[in-house]
From TrEMBL:
The keyword Mitochondrion appears for this protein: no
Alphabetical list of SUPFAM superfamilies matching this protein: P-loop containing nucleoside triphosphate hydrolases
A Pfam family of this chain: ABC_tran
MF annotations from Gene Ontology: ATP binding; ATP hydrolysis activity; transmembrane transporter activity
UniProtKB keywords: ATP-binding, Nucleotide-binding, Transport
Protein name: ABC transporter ATP-binding protein
GO cellular component, as recorded: membrane protein complex
Domain of life, source organism: Bacteria
Length: 234
């Protein structure tokens, strides 16, 4: 399969007062088109830093990141903003929906600026929210709000879907249904999904598992016998 993402010698240092914190310390890995990737690690390992750099929300201190035919670490601020807007769909732990827009408007607001976006209503139908499109976030459950957030990310028709602890605020059953939705979307659209979690039980659903420890890659494992979410318990 064709390579879609490559991290080469990526470091990230934060300076807090006098003490520098090395959030990433020489990170190398690659991801192929269509892969479902789980990035695993303990709290503070550097998972979100990797995801934020990949999504163009943060820049590394040194090293290179390639996505598709672009080196995103060499882009101007304007081009990086375009990359973030056009190529990346984000799903966060706390849905980040706009409270005074209904579900449909939340999705449409995100797709307005995207050239190749998909139809907002179609995607909301796909995530199982046909009857709730006129509801505001406060009228939806956590799982439903996360479905709106996923619809919002997918409707942009991005190159990558990046998910940071997407089930972190959900109960077991709802979390599983959100993971199933992400797995189905990956299978049906062949879009690359990168999911960050501390929950190692989720790993069997991935094509590739990248373990992060103290700002470094501990291991990269290909999973030849990928499991359906329904078959995973934790
Ligand atoms: N803006 C920042 N300023 C200073 N230090 C930071 C900043 N962001 C992250 N760090 C530090 O970098 C390290 C990696 O953080 P990161 O958020 O990537 O970890 P994580 O694996 O995603 O953790 P968690 O699962 O708790 O979210 C941590 O030590 C963190 O305290």
């Amino acid at each position: 399969m064709k390579k879609l993402i490559e991290f080469k010698g990526v470091t990230k240092e934060y300076k807090v007062g006098e003490v520098p914190i090395k959030a990433l310390n020489g990170v190398d890995f690659s991801i192929s088109e269509g892969e479902f990737v789980v990035i695993l690690g303990a709290s503070g390992a550097g998972k979100s830093t990797i995801l934020n750099i990949l999504g163009g929300m943060d820049t590394p201190t040194s090293g290179q990141v390639f996505v598709g035919d672009q080196e995103i670490t060499s882009l101007s601020e304007k081009k990086l903003t375009d990359y973030r807007g056009e190529k990346v769909g984000f799903v966060f732990q706390f849905y980040n929906l706009i409270p005074n827009l209904n579900a449909l408007e939340n999705v449409e607001f995100a797709t307005e600026v995207c050239k190749n976006h998909l139809d907002a209503k179609d995607i909301l139908h796909k995530v199982g929210l046909t009857d709730r499109i006129k509801n505001f976030p406060s009228q939806l459950s956590g799982g439903e709000q996360q479905r709106v957030a996923i619809a919002r990310a997918v409707a942009k028709n991005p190159l990558l879907l990046l998910c940071d602890e997407p089930t972190g605020a959900l109960d077991y059953v709802t979390g599983k249904s959100v993971l199933k939705l992400l797995q189905d979307l990956n299978r049906e659209t062949n879009k690359c999904v990168v999911l960050v979690t501390h929950n190692s039980a989720i790993a069997p659903m991935a094509d590739k598992i990248i373990k992060v420890k103290s700002g470094m890659i501990e291991s990269v494992t290909m999973n030849d016998e990928k499991q359906s979410v329904e078959g995973i318990e934790w």
